[in-house]
Write a structure and sequence with these properties.
The complex is a heterodimer of chains A (about 170) and B (about 325).
Chain A: E1 3-10, E2 13-20, H1 25-32, E3 51-54, E4 57-60, E5 73-75, H2 80-86, H3 94-102, H4 111-124, H5 130-136, H6 148-164
Parallel strand pairs in A: 1-5
Antiparallel strand pairs in A: 1-2, 3-4, 3-5
Helix pairs in contact in A: 3-6
Chain B: E1 5-7, H1 12-19, E2 24-27, H2 33-38, E3 46-49, E4 59-61, E5 67-70, H3 75-80, H4 82-87, H5 89-96, H6 101-106, H7 109-113, H8 126-132, H9 161-166, E6 170-175, E7 178-183, E8 203-209, E9 217-225, E10 236-245, E11 248-257, E12 264-265, H10 267-271, H11 280-297, H12 308-328, E13 333-334
Parallel strand pairs in B: 1-3, 2-3, 9-13
Antiparallel strand pairs in B: 4-5, 5-8, 6-7, 6-8, 9-10, 10-11, 11-12
Helix pairs in contact in B: 11-12
Classes of the chains: A alpha+beta (about 170), B alpha+beta (about 325).
Chain lengths: ~170, ~325
């Protein structure tokens, strides 16, 4: 089976990796690039643990062939804080800060995917309703928290961004 | 995942030339194809990616009012598109309920129309299926749904097929011998192993929804039964179309999925609505008659998860509520 050099844009960097045609984006991220923040859960599109952003939209890396991500901007959880810093922010992304503050995790396995789905929502819609938050996170399963703290964390991130908006400190 | 070669054509002609080769399969969103390859249900030598083909993308309103949707248009795009929501409400609602947000961003209308049938004894890993001794649909000779059954009853689980049936959609296929158009009602057959009247090398190019006759108001809604509010495939899907003139239903159509291998047109249920008033007690009576007729036709079996008796009891409820939602301009009907 064919392999090729795949040139990907991941977290703002252009990287080249050798991979067989059938490798998924998740396999390249984890096993070629060492970016293990994207989790390999069900590996068949049920759980959302492998969620990454492709051109800002949440997609499942386990069901994306790596070669088909060529030419697109891929953001993984490892890229969230650097992107925040590049945009003039300080510390971690407000979504990450809020998940930390709200204890929106237990085992942590779903958390990267959850935070990326939340980040994409807030980039699209800075002040979403609770129903919109639930909808945006409805492709990410959590087996520990019961979701309450996760939704609270997104609302906390919204509040933090809204408070900081007047002085230009938010994203 | 089993290895394969990936081809990335940029035109329909290139794609159909590649798909004509034995062992080729097309990939658009990949949200069903890749799990099926991982489960060793599909074993392609070459996977032909359709994402680079411009002709397959986008939604257009043709000059005669036909709504034309490219096969690789994403379900998220179909669900959110103003013309689809207005002219094919049930389709937009069905697309909005397929799987979860990430899968709708990736998955395509064409992929959903051509979705492989599903069964709880089939959509499993090779190890799981081997432990059970396989089944009729793949690698085995017995059916685990119908004891001594000789015909596969894996279920059509494509949410968008039900509204497209009610909307008399037409499908355009391309192959290396030319193009053809096929009414969607003729696409499906009741064989769970292979429920499509489509040649292996054929590529779905566009889905066309005919314009509504002048003077009619077209109403529609979709209802979906599933255990969770997201991600799951349907345990039952019901699409309703009502064409209304002067507060009277002049045409009605209902489609149902997740019952057997073929999406079903519920003609007797629809007949109970035709010529009924579109409001008041006459409408209420017609809705109940419609739901009762649907209940007589719908016989869920244990092919998809969820108790079959529960699915049967929910069928008239979902038919009733979906017809009401179509009339009220609400929907989708969803949630327990």
């Amino acid at each position: 089976m064919a392999s090729s050099i795949v040139e990907l844009k991941v977290n703002g960097d252009t990287v080249e990796v050798a991979a067989p045609d059938h490798f998924t984006l998740l396999e390249v991220l984890r096993y070629r690039l060492g970016l293990t923040g994207s989790k390999q859960g069900c590996d068949k599109g049920d759980c959302g643990a492998c969620t990454v952003l492709v051109d800002g939209e949440p997609v499942l890396a386990c069901l994306t062939l790596a070669r088909l991500a060529v030419g697109h901007e891929v953001t993984t959880i490892e890229g969230l804080m650097p992107a925040h810093l590049r945009a003039g922010g300080t510390g971690a992304d407000p979504v990450q800060e809020a998940f930390d503050r709200c204890g929106a995790l237990q085992c942590g396995f779903c958390q990267p995917g959850m935070m990326l789905s939340a980040r994409a929502l807030l980039d699209r819609e800075p002040n979403p309703s609770r129903a919109a938050i639930k909808g945006a996170l409805s492709g990410n399963l959590c087996r520990c928290t019961g979701y309450t703290q996760i939704i609270e964390a997104v609302e906390t991130a919204i509040a933090a961004s809204t408070e900081r908006a007047p002085d230009g400190g938010s994203r | 995942m089993q290895g394969f070669d990936l081809a990335t054509p940029t035109t329909v002609d290139e794609a159909v030339a590649l798909l004509a080769r034995e062992g080729s399969l097309a990939i658009a969103g990949g949200t069903d194809l890749l799990p099926n390859i991982k489960h060793e249900l599909f074993e392609p030598r070459t996977v032909v990616a359709l994402g680079g083909i411009e002709e397959l993308r986008g939604i257009e309103l043709e000059s005669d009012g036909t709504l034309s949707i490219g096969a690789t248009t994403t379900l998220a795009h179909v669900a959110a598109h103003d013309e689809v929501r207005c002219r094919a409400t049930a389709l937009a609602q069905a697309a909005s309920l397929v799987a979860g947000p990430q899968l709708r961003t990736m998955g395509t209308l064409g992929g959903n129309v051509l979705l492989d049938t599903r069964c709880q004894w089939y959509n499993q890993s090779y190890f799981w299926r081997q432990s059970l001794g396989f089944c009729l649909k793949k690698d085995g000779s017995v059916c685990h749904v119908i004891e001594s059954g000789s015909k596969c009853v894996a279920a059509a689980s494509n949410d968008t097929a039900a509204p497209l049936l009610t909307l008399d959609a037409e499908l355009e296929f391309a192959s290396n011998t030319g193009r053809r158009r096929l009414p969607i009602a003729e696409l499906y057959k009741s064989d769970g192993v292979a429920n499509l009247r489509k040649e292996p090398g054929e590529l779905l190019v566009r889905v066309r929804i005919p314009a509504l006759e002048t003077g009619r108001e077209r109403l529609g809604a979709y209802g979906k039964l599933r255990e969770r509010g997201s991600i799951d495939f349907p345990l039952l899907g019901v699409a309703v179309r009502l064409d209304v003139v002067d507060d009277r239903i002049v045409h009605a159509a209902l489609g149902a999925i997740a019952l057997q291998a073929r999406p079903l047109a519920l003609q007797k249920a629809a007949a109970a609505l035709i010529d009924a008033p579109a409001s008041g007690p006459g409408f209420d009576d017609a809705v109940l008659a419609c739901a009762a007729a649907a209940a007589r036709q719908l016989h869920p079996v244990a092919n998809v998860p969820g108790d079959a008796q529960w699915r049967k009891e929910m069928a008239p409820v979902y038919v009733r509520e979906t017809v009401r939602a179509a009339r009220a301009g609400t929907g989708p009907v969803h949630g327990r």
